[in-house]
Amino acid sequence: MAALSFVHHYQPGATPESPTLLLLHGTGGNEQDLLPLAPELMAGAGVLSPRGKVLENGMPRFFRRLSEGVFDLEDLRFRTTELAGFIGDAAAHYGFDASRVVAVGFSNGANIAASLVLLRPGVLQGAVLFRAMVPIVPDPLPALPGTRVLVSNGRADPLVSEAETGRLVGLLEDAGAEVALAWQDAGHHLVHDDVARAREWLGSDLTKGERR
Asked: What kind of architecture, by CATH, is found in domain 8-203?
């Protein structure tokens, strides 16, 4: 479906009060990639899954990068604002609760989700970040009390080091977010324990923080 400003997939939740999972794919993925995860993560949740608009050698992404791990920050700011607007427009169009949107992002999708948290506070109720790094350091930092974030990264990830993961967690905590960190015995790919930990986290009360 190409309605609104992104090619996307939408599935309504079981009830009007159901949360909506914003699924954000990694580099080279599309709006279909993470759909199988949605019922495993939160049965009955709505699903909004856009396709990134930026192409890198023909592979969709959510924002440009200059090299591996080096982001085009001007483009990141623009794409973050664009995605935030799409979420609001989609909520109005489909009738879901815009205050109950939780991002679930992998790699590049996790990085744009983290950017949404940092640059557009209030757009997301929370975020699950699989294999994420620091996308941008806002100055000044936003105030994020009540925003919950799960970071699930791999100890053997060749792209995201443990130090980089620590930087991301520290940045979010310094902004006041309630951050849970889950380490996986994995590289830059999803494993069963990522899904199990995210399902547990999403099933907990979204108004309460936890740290593991």
From this structure: 3-Layer(aba) Sandwich (3.40)
